[in-house]
Amino acid sequence: MAPQREEVLDAAMHRAVAASEAVRGTTSPNPPVGCVVLDAAGIVAGVGVTEPPGGPHAEIVALREAGDRARGGTAVVTLEPCAHHGRTPPCVDALLAAGIAEVHHAVADLHPAGAGGAARLRVAGVTVEEGLLADLVCRGPLRAWLHAVRAGRPHVTWKFAATLDGRAAAPDGTSRWISSERSRAEVHSLRAAVDAVLAGTGTVLADDPQLTARRPDGAPTQRQPLRVVVGNRPLPSGARVLDDAAETIVCPGHDPTAVLAALHHRGIVDVLLEGGPTVAGAFVAAGLVDRVLAYLAPSLLGAGPAALAAAGVATLTDRFELRVEEVGMSGPDIRISAVPAAREG
Asked: Fewer CB atoms inside 10 A, N or C side of the chain?
Protein backbone atom coordinates (compact mmCIF):
# COMPACT_ATOMS: atom_id res chain seq x y z
CA MET A 1 0.00 0.00 0.00
CA ALA A 2 1.43 3.38 -1.02
CA PRO A 3 2.27 5.67 1.93
CA GLN A 4 -0.13 8.36 0.75
CA ARG A 5 -2.97 5.86 0.41
CA GLU A 6 -2.23 4.47 3.88
CA GLU A 7 -2.38 7.96 5.35
CA VAL A 8 -5.73 8.58 3.69
CA LEU A 9 -7.18 5.37 5.09
CA ASP A 10 -5.79 6.03 8.57
CA ALA A 11 -7.30 9.51 8.56
CA ALA A 12 -10.65 8.10 7.45
CA MET A 13 -10.63 5.50 10.25
CA HIS A 14 -9.77 8.15 12.83
CA ARG A 15 -12.75 10.14 11.58
CA ALA A 16 -15.00 7.08 11.74
CA VAL A 17 -13.89 6.39 15.33
CA ALA A 18 -14.52 9.99 16.39
CA ALA A 19 -17.97 9.94 14.80
CA SER A 20 -18.92 6.68 16.51
CA GLU A 21 -17.71 7.94 19.90
CA ALA A 22 -20.32 10.69 19.67
CA VAL A 23 -23.16 8.13 19.59
CA ARG A 24 -21.76 5.68 22.13
CA GLY A 25 -24.54 4.55 24.42
CA THR A 26 -27.36 5.39 22.01
CA THR A 27 -27.17 2.24 19.88
CA SER A 28 -27.26 -0.61 22.41
CA PRO A 29 -27.66 -3.49 22.08
CA ASN A 30 -26.25 -2.72 18.61
CA PRO A 31 -22.62 -1.60 18.30
CA PRO A 32 -21.76 2.10 17.83
CA VAL A 33 -20.18 1.86 14.39
CA GLY A 34 -18.64 4.64 12.34
CA CYS A 35 -18.19 4.64 8.56
CA VAL A 36 -16.45 7.00 6.14
CA VAL A 37 -16.98 6.66 2.39
CA LEU A 38 -14.19 7.91 0.14
CA ASP A 39 -14.82 8.59 -3.53
CA ALA A 40 -12.62 7.10 -6.26
CA ALA A 41 -10.12 9.92 -5.73
CA GLY A 42 -9.82 9.23 -2.00
CA ILE A 43 -11.78 12.30 -0.91
CA VAL A 44 -14.36 12.02 1.87
CA ALA A 45 -17.80 11.76 0.32
CA GLY A 46 -19.91 10.63 3.28
CA VAL A 47 -19.70 10.01 7.02
CA GLY A 48 -22.20 7.92 8.95
CA VAL A 49 -22.81 6.42 12.37
CA THR A 50 -25.21 3.79 13.59
CA GLU A 51 -28.54 5.25 14.63
CA PRO A 52 -30.60 4.01 17.61
CA PRO A 53 -32.13 0.50 17.32
CA GLY A 54 -34.44 0.29 14.34
CA GLY A 55 -32.56 3.00 12.46
CA PRO A 56 -30.00 2.58 9.67
CA HIS A 57 -26.47 1.36 10.28
CA ALA A 58 -23.41 3.53 9.77
CA GLU A 59 -22.71 2.29 6.25
CA ILE A 60 -26.21 3.17 5.06
CA VAL A 61 -25.99 6.69 6.48
CA ALA A 62 -22.57 7.28 4.90
CA LEU A 63 -23.66 5.91 1.53
CA ARG A 64 -26.71 8.14 1.48
CA GLU A 65 -24.52 11.17 2.08
CA ALA A 66 -22.03 10.08 -0.57
CA GLY A 67 -24.65 9.41 -3.24
CA ASP A 68 -23.19 8.67 -6.69
CA ARG A 69 -19.70 9.54 -5.47
CA ALA A 70 -19.60 6.16 -3.70
CA ARG A 71 -19.29 4.28 -6.98
CA GLY A 72 -15.73 3.01 -7.38
CA GLY A 73 -14.92 4.33 -3.94
CA THR A 74 -13.85 2.94 -0.58
CA ALA A 75 -15.76 2.34 2.64
CA VAL A 76 -13.75 2.62 5.85
CA VAL A 77 -15.71 1.04 8.72
CA THR A 78 -14.89 0.38 12.36
CA LEU A 79 -16.69 -3.01 12.24
CA GLU A 80 -17.08 -5.61 9.51
CA PRO A 81 -20.27 -4.80 7.53
CA CYS A 82 -23.16 -7.05 8.52
CA ALA A 83 -24.52 -9.72 6.21
CA HIS A 84 -27.81 -10.53 7.92
CA HIS A 85 -31.31 -9.08 7.73
CA GLY A 86 -32.40 -7.96 11.20
CA ARG A 87 -34.36 -4.81 11.89
CA THR A 88 -32.60 -3.36 8.83
CA PRO A 89 -31.35 -4.91 5.56
CA PRO A 90 -27.74 -6.16 5.29
CA CYS A 91 -25.14 -3.43 4.92
CA VAL A 92 -23.29 -5.67 2.48
CA ASP A 93 -26.17 -5.37 0.00
CA ALA A 94 -26.11 -1.58 0.23
CA LEU A 95 -22.34 -1.43 -0.32
CA LEU A 96 -22.60 -3.64 -3.39
CA ALA A 97 -25.53 -1.69 -4.79
CA ALA A 98 -23.58 1.56 -4.36
CA GLY A 99 -20.65 0.18 -6.36
CA ILE A 100 -18.08 0.31 -3.56
CA ALA A 101 -14.77 -1.12 -4.81
CA GLU A 102 -12.90 -1.47 -1.50
CA VAL A 103 -13.83 -1.99 2.15
CA HIS A 104 -11.37 -1.51 4.99
CA HIS A 105 -12.69 -2.46 8.43
CA ALA A 106 -10.94 -2.51 11.79
CA VAL A 107 -12.34 -5.64 13.43
CA ALA A 108 -14.40 -8.63 12.43
CA ASP A 109 -18.03 -8.89 13.53
CA LEU A 110 -17.97 -11.44 16.35
CA HIS A 111 -21.75 -11.77 16.54
CA PRO A 112 -22.87 -15.01 14.86
CA ALA A 113 -25.86 -13.32 13.25
CA GLY A 114 -23.87 -10.48 11.71
CA ALA A 115 -20.65 -12.21 10.67
CA GLY A 116 -19.78 -13.16 7.11
CA GLY A 117 -20.00 -9.75 5.49
CA ALA A 118 -16.36 -9.66 4.42
CA ALA A 119 -16.63 -13.05 2.72
CA ARG A 120 -19.72 -11.99 0.78
CA LEU A 121 -18.03 -8.81 -0.38
CA ARG A 122 -14.95 -10.69 -1.56
CA VAL A 123 -17.08 -13.17 -3.51
CA ALA A 124 -18.70 -10.21 -5.25
CA GLY A 125 -15.29 -8.88 -6.29
CA VAL A 126 -14.82 -6.19 -3.66
CA THR A 127 -11.34 -5.78 -2.19
CA VAL A 128 -11.63 -6.26 1.59
CA GLU A 129 -8.94 -5.61 4.19
CA GLU A 130 -9.28 -6.18 7.94
CA GLY A 131 -7.25 -4.73 10.81
CA LEU A 132 -6.99 -1.01 9.99
CA LEU A 133 -6.25 0.70 13.34
CA ALA A 134 -7.84 -2.27 15.09
CA ASP A 135 -6.24 -1.50 18.45
CA LEU A 136 -7.65 2.04 18.43
CA VAL A 137 -11.13 0.75 17.67
CA CYS A 138 -11.01 -2.08 20.21
CA ARG A 139 -10.04 0.35 22.98
CA GLY A 140 -12.53 2.95 21.82
CA PRO A 141 -16.27 2.99 21.21
CA LEU A 142 -16.49 -0.73 20.37
CA ARG A 143 -14.72 -1.91 23.53
CA ALA A 144 -17.86 -2.69 25.52
CA TRP A 145 -19.81 -4.20 22.64
CA LEU A 146 -17.00 -6.52 21.58
CA HIS A 147 -16.60 -7.66 25.17
CA ALA A 148 -20.33 -8.26 25.57
CA VAL A 149 -20.41 -10.43 22.46
CA ARG A 150 -17.38 -12.45 23.58
CA ALA A 151 -18.36 -12.84 27.24
CA GLY A 152 -22.15 -12.90 27.02
CA ARG A 153 -22.43 -10.20 29.68
CA PRO A 154 -22.03 -6.43 29.93
CA HIS A 155 -18.63 -4.80 30.07
CA VAL A 156 -17.94 -3.34 33.54
CA THR A 157 -15.80 -0.28 34.23
CA TRP A 158 -15.16 0.35 37.92
CA LYS A 159 -14.68 4.08 38.43
CA PHE A 160 -13.49 5.45 41.74
CA ALA A 161 -12.00 8.61 43.18
CA ALA A 162 -9.47 8.49 46.01
CA THR A 163 -6.63 10.37 47.61
CA LEU A 164 -3.05 9.43 46.84
CA ASP A 165 -3.07 7.18 49.91
CA GLY A 166 -6.12 5.31 48.59
CA ARG A 167 -8.81 6.78 50.82
CA ALA A 168 -12.28 7.16 49.35
CA ALA A 169 -13.59 9.19 52.28
CA ALA A 170 -12.45 10.85 55.48
CA PRO A 171 -12.71 9.07 58.85
CA ASP A 172 -16.04 10.83 59.51
CA GLY A 173 -17.43 9.47 56.24
CA THR A 174 -17.34 12.70 54.23
CA SER A 175 -16.33 12.16 50.63
CA ARG A 176 -17.45 15.26 48.70
CA TRP A 177 -15.46 16.30 46.92
CA ILE A 178 -12.28 14.22 46.75
CA SER A 179 -11.84 14.63 43.01
CA SER A 180 -11.68 17.91 41.13
CA GLU A 181 -14.44 19.68 39.25
CA ARG A 182 -12.78 18.65 35.99
CA SER A 183 -12.81 14.98 37.01
CA ARG A 184 -16.44 15.14 38.06
CA ALA A 185 -17.32 16.66 34.68
CA GLU A 186 -15.52 13.79 32.93
CA VAL A 187 -17.50 11.28 34.95
CA HIS A 188 -20.78 12.91 33.94
CA SER A 189 -19.73 12.65 30.29
CA LEU A 190 -18.93 8.99 30.87
CA ARG A 191 -22.32 8.40 32.49
CA ALA A 192 -24.01 9.89 29.44
CA ALA A 193 -22.20 7.40 27.19
CA VAL A 194 -22.84 4.15 29.09
CA ASP A 195 -25.99 2.05 29.31
CA ALA A 196 -26.15 1.74 33.09
CA VAL A 197 -24.63 3.22 36.25
CA LEU A 198 -24.42 0.84 39.22
CA ALA A 199 -24.01 1.58 42.93
CA GLY A 200 -24.65 -0.22 46.20
CA THR A 201 -27.29 0.59 48.77
CA GLY A 202 -24.52 1.65 51.15
CA THR A 203 -23.45 4.42 48.79
CA VAL A 204 -27.05 5.51 48.24
CA LEU A 205 -27.74 5.67 51.97
CA ALA A 206 -24.48 7.47 52.77
CA ASP A 207 -24.30 10.00 49.93
CA ASP A 208 -27.82 10.10 48.39
CA PRO A 209 -26.44 10.38 44.84
CA GLN A 210 -28.78 10.98 41.93
CA LEU A 211 -26.55 8.96 39.54
CA THR A 212 -27.64 10.99 36.54
CA ALA A 213 -25.56 12.57 33.80
CA ARG A 214 -25.36 16.35 33.90
CA ARG A 215 -23.75 19.07 31.80
CA PRO A 216 -21.24 21.50 33.29
CA ASP A 217 -24.06 24.00 33.91
CA GLY A 218 -25.91 21.40 35.99
CA ALA A 219 -28.62 20.69 33.42
CA PRO A 220 -29.36 17.01 32.73
CA THR A 221 -28.07 15.55 29.50
CA GLN A 222 -30.65 14.49 26.95
CA ARG A 223 -29.82 10.82 27.38
CA GLN A 224 -29.68 9.23 30.83
CA PRO A 225 -28.28 5.80 31.75
CA LEU A 226 -30.27 3.18 33.60
CA ARG A 227 -29.62 3.51 37.35
CA VAL A 228 -28.96 0.19 39.08
CA VAL A 229 -28.84 -0.17 42.87
CA VAL A 230 -27.70 -3.46 44.42
CA GLY A 231 -27.87 -4.59 48.02
CA ASN A 232 -30.28 -5.70 50.72
CA ARG A 233 -30.84 -2.54 52.71
CA PRO A 234 -34.12 -0.74 52.01
CA LEU A 235 -33.96 2.70 50.45
CA PRO A 236 -35.94 5.67 51.72
CA SER A 237 -38.76 6.73 49.43
CA GLY A 238 -37.16 10.15 49.09
CA ALA A 239 -33.80 8.88 47.82
CA ARG A 240 -32.71 10.91 44.83
CA VAL A 241 -31.85 7.77 42.88
CA LEU A 242 -35.57 6.93 42.92
CA ASP A 243 -36.70 10.21 41.36
CA ASP A 244 -38.11 10.49 37.85
CA ALA A 245 -34.93 11.90 36.29
CA ALA A 246 -34.09 8.45 34.91
CA GLU A 247 -35.19 4.84 35.19
CA THR A 248 -33.98 2.92 38.25
CA ILE A 249 -33.99 -0.77 39.08
CA VAL A 250 -33.11 -2.26 42.47
CA CYS A 251 -31.42 -5.67 42.58
CA PRO A 252 -31.52 -7.33 46.02
CA GLY A 253 -28.31 -9.05 47.08
CA HIS A 254 -24.71 -8.61 46.03
CA ASP A 255 -24.28 -11.42 43.48
CA PRO A 256 -22.47 -9.69 40.58
CA THR A 257 -23.07 -12.59 38.20
CA ALA A 258 -26.83 -12.47 38.73
CA VAL A 259 -26.90 -8.68 38.39
CA LEU A 260 -25.00 -8.72 35.10
CA ALA A 261 -27.16 -11.56 33.77
CA ALA A 262 -30.28 -9.50 34.46
CA LEU A 263 -28.77 -6.46 32.77
CA HIS A 264 -27.63 -8.52 29.78
CA HIS A 265 -31.20 -9.74 29.39
CA ARG A 266 -32.29 -6.09 29.13
CA GLY A 267 -29.82 -5.44 26.32
CA ILE A 268 -27.35 -3.57 28.54
CA VAL A 269 -23.84 -3.60 27.06
CA ASP A 270 -21.80 -1.04 29.01
CA VAL A 271 -21.93 -0.66 32.82
CA LEU A 272 -20.23 1.97 34.96
CA LEU A 273 -19.69 0.69 38.49
CA GLU A 274 -19.49 3.70 40.80
CA GLY A 275 -19.38 2.17 44.25
CA GLY A 276 -19.06 1.73 46.99
CA PRO A 277 -16.13 -0.34 48.24
CA THR A 278 -18.25 -3.35 49.24
CA VAL A 279 -19.93 -3.71 45.86
CA ALA A 280 -16.67 -3.01 44.05
CA GLY A 281 -14.94 -5.69 46.14
CA ALA A 282 -17.63 -8.20 45.21
CA PHE A 283 -17.21 -7.51 41.49
CA VAL A 284 -13.41 -7.68 41.72
CA ALA A 285 -13.56 -10.94 43.70
CA ALA A 286 -15.84 -12.43 41.05
CA GLY A 287 -13.47 -11.41 38.25
CA LEU A 288 -16.14 -9.21 36.73
CA VAL A 289 -14.30 -5.90 36.50
CA ASP A 290 -13.10 -5.37 32.95
CA ARG A 291 -11.57 -1.93 33.35
CA VAL A 292 -10.51 0.21 36.28
CA LEU A 293 -10.75 3.98 35.91
CA ALA A 294 -9.13 5.75 38.87
CA TYR A 295 -9.09 9.45 39.67
CA LEU A 296 -6.37 10.13 42.25
CA ALA A 297 -6.50 13.49 43.95
CA PRO A 298 -3.25 15.14 45.13
CA SER A 299 -4.17 14.95 48.79
CA LEU A 300 -3.68 12.70 51.82
CA LEU A 301 -6.10 11.63 54.55
CA GLY A 302 -4.12 9.04 56.49
CA ALA A 303 -7.30 7.31 57.65
CA GLY A 304 -10.82 6.59 56.46
CA PRO A 305 -12.40 3.91 54.28
CA ALA A 306 -10.41 2.57 51.34
CA ALA A 307 -11.74 2.66 47.80
CA LEU A 308 -11.93 -1.14 47.72
CA ALA A 309 -13.21 -3.50 50.41
CA ALA A 310 -12.57 -7.25 50.65
CA ALA A 311 -11.96 -8.59 47.16
CA GLY A 312 -11.04 -12.21 47.79
CA VAL A 313 -7.30 -11.54 48.14
CA ALA A 314 -5.74 -13.40 51.07
CA THR A 315 -2.08 -13.15 50.13
CA LEU A 316 0.10 -11.13 47.81
CA THR A 317 0.17 -13.86 45.19
CA ASP A 318 -3.63 -13.62 44.90
CA ARG A 319 -3.59 -9.94 44.00
CA PHE A 320 -5.66 -8.69 41.11
CA GLU A 321 -3.04 -7.81 38.50
CA LEU A 322 -3.70 -4.89 36.18
CA ARG A 323 -2.04 -3.54 33.07
CA VAL A 324 -2.07 0.23 32.78
CA GLU A 325 -3.22 1.31 29.35
CA GLU A 326 -3.37 5.07 29.85
CA VAL A 327 -2.24 7.69 32.35
CA GLY A 328 -3.31 11.31 32.06
CA MET A 329 -4.31 14.38 33.99
CA SER A 330 -7.82 15.54 34.78
CA GLY A 331 -7.35 19.01 36.15
CA PRO A 332 -5.11 18.47 39.22
CA ASP A 333 -6.04 14.77 39.45
CA ILE A 334 -4.21 11.80 37.98
CA ARG A 335 -6.44 9.65 35.78
CA ILE A 336 -5.41 6.02 35.32
CA SER A 337 -7.11 3.51 33.03
CA ALA A 338 -6.12 -0.11 33.55
CA VAL A 339 -7.40 -3.51 32.48
CA PRO A 340 -6.91 -7.00 33.90
CA ALA A 341 -3.43 -8.17 32.98
CA ALA A 342 -4.67 -11.53 31.72
CA ARG A 343 -7.03 -10.05 29.15
CA GLU A 344 -7.72 -6.88 27.21
CA GLY A 345 -10.79 -4.72 26.70
From this structure: N
